[in-house]
Amino acid sequence: MSARLPIEIVGGGLAGLALGLALRREGVPVTVFESGDYPRHRVCGEFISGLGDDTAASLGLREFLADAWPHRVVTYHLRGRPLRPIRLPAPALGISRHTLDARLARAFVESGGHLRTHTRADTSLSPDGRVHAAGKRRDGPFWVGLKVHLRNLDLVTDFEIHLGERCYLGLSRVETGAVNACGIFAPQEHAERGFGLLLAYLRTAGLGALAERLRAADPDPGSFCVTAAPLGDRRIAPSGRICIGDACASIPPFTGNGLAMALQGAESAAGPLLAYCSRDSSWGEAAREVASAQRARFSRRLMAASLIHPFFLGTWQQSCLAAFINSRIVPFGALYSVLR
Questions:
Q1: Pairing of strands 179-185, 143-151
Q2: Between the chain's N and C termini, which has fewer beta carbons within 10 Å?
């Protein structure tokens, strides 16, 4: 039996590491290129909605998610006013990227994978055997993302989403019991830095009471991080190259579905790549099969999320959203089912 063809993965986030680990378990030589290192905090809701136990089982991820905090009920707040609680169709998982990325990276290396941290690969090149798992689109408008972990903060329900002036912020627990506060905001100039910057953004967005509530908690300074990026992307990468995770498409953060999509993308790519590595198909055939699987799996939810997302950021749209939630006109439990 001939040796399996090797795979290179550019990007060591959830998608890249999960795919690399799945391929290593099948004996495929895999190298992952990652510009950063582990463990690391990232601007992320750390809320996995709609993953599905079949995907976790297919990728062998159950052990890595075993201590994730279960979330069953979401409550939206419009400028401090709580709306009707919404029960999720299936429990979501709360787990920090600091923990999950490090677990997967360690397991990948222990499986015999080659992890090259602090290394950037040329993403303009796409030879056979290279999978792209990093790189969001770079056309604007750009928004600011802020995240920090907080201790000693009580929540109304498992997951809170607070709507403010051109912003929204989520609060949910991760596996340590800490609350992850993560939000997106229209860019502004503020003198504050670190945790104070998040509070300043909240006050400017009309969420002063929420800022005071968070200020009374105990922040973990090392967990604070900030980024600037566009929000959501309907694009499904063309079939000329294999792209997973954010390199394939990104969904608006309010869905809590971004991490699930990263892992589902890895699942969709694993089979076609294994066929290529076993010389049962060409690279072009594998790329077309992966792109087709991702279009079938993600196109509907990307379209639905892009249509709904403006209702989370505009003032009058937020008022409409609040009215819909409280009147039960919109079955939001069914909405979360669509975004899976």
A1: antiparallel
A2: N
